[in-house]
Amino acid sequence: MILDWLLDGMVALLILAAALWTLAAPTPFAAVIGFVGFGLLASLAWVRLAAVDVALTEAAVGAGATGVILLQSAVRLRRGAAEVAAATPGRATTLLAGLLAGGLGLGLALAVLALPATVPGPAAEAAARSAEVGLGNLVAAVLMAYRGLDTLLESIVLVFAVLAVWAMGPDRHWGGIPGPRFARQRDGPLALLARWLPPVGIVIGIHIAWVGADAPGGKFQGGTVLAAMWVLAWGAGLVRPPSVADRRVRLVLVAGPLGFLLAGLLGAVLDGSFLAWPAALGKPLLLLVEAAMTLSVAAALALLVVGPPERRA
Amino acid sequence: MTEALTLLATIILGSVAAGLWRVLRGPAPADRLMAAQLLSTGAIAALLLLGAATGDPALLDVALLLALFGAFATVAFVLGARLARQR
Lengths: 313, 87
Known about the structure:
The complex is a heterodimer.
Chain A: H1 2-24, H2 28-48, H3 52-77, H4 81-87, H5 91-113, H6 123-133, H7 138-146, H8 148-167, E1 177-178, H9 189-211, H10 219-235, H11 247-271, H12 282-306, E2 309-311
Antiparallel strand pairs in A: 1-2
Helix pairs in contact in A: 1-2, 2-3, 3-10, 3-12, 6-7, 7-8, 8-11, 8-12, 9-10, 10-12, 11-12
Chain B: H1 2-25, H2 29-54, H3 58-86
């Protein structure tokens, strides 16, 4: 008991220290390293709160993918140092924003402490009926069945995010190859790692996506791992990003949301309501949509890291 | 046994805290990156111990992800530093 308090207290203190240091970091690079460390510790905190699904998401999407996207932004922003300095808010604005955010955090903490021991809501009923969906993992059941519409919209947001990044490129590069070019590494640590890690990572990514039906995991976490493995091979110059006009890329990007939408319409035809997962086809259809979503998440995150088109195809 | 494993995880996190202090000091980006690596290695060890303490196999998956992204983050930072020098 005391040990649990000690461990949880230490995790909480470390998170606060990482957050403060990230805010006070001297360079953007250092801040991104602090942010990744913060995400790592937050992932530990979610494990301590018995929310392993969230811990996996935090480790993959929070620390991994967001960290790399922030890093890319830091590198790109170096060219516009003057504009960044001009757009950076002054000390008073920063202090005010900090006070507001701190007040909001404090209010949320007090609200959580004031919650009754048993929270009213449909959680108990959802838990009792999750077997009907054919998913042993309650989080997956909620995401795919009870709140399917949220998950569908979330998957569509990813497509829009990629479109927004592509739209950042100048008109003359539209239809070209996105992102910076990396020289092909023939030997050295990067070449070795880029050959050695992806086979392991691809297996782990598919494993995380597959066990999501019955244990913590799922398409977003698994897809992020797959994207990271492609980014690794890209960084070592082993693969090149396809042109943004390539139909196959666009197809993979929308396969998940499109499959989800079609399955939802099938539910409307067979079961009378949109996203109803018809009982006869339930589990296989669900797995098909999850597989397509894993691919689309992987493609979207990889393209977000790569960035807007920068040169002709 | 559960207590012993939790205690070990706590001690490891304590050593991670010392690593975090190293992140604070820097001074070169490489120092900070090494401390972040120590952080991820320590978190993996703590997760494996906690996984054994609670008997939850899902914690092994979290540790696996941290191991993958730890290696990946190092590469990403080196590539980022290389790009920054080119521009």
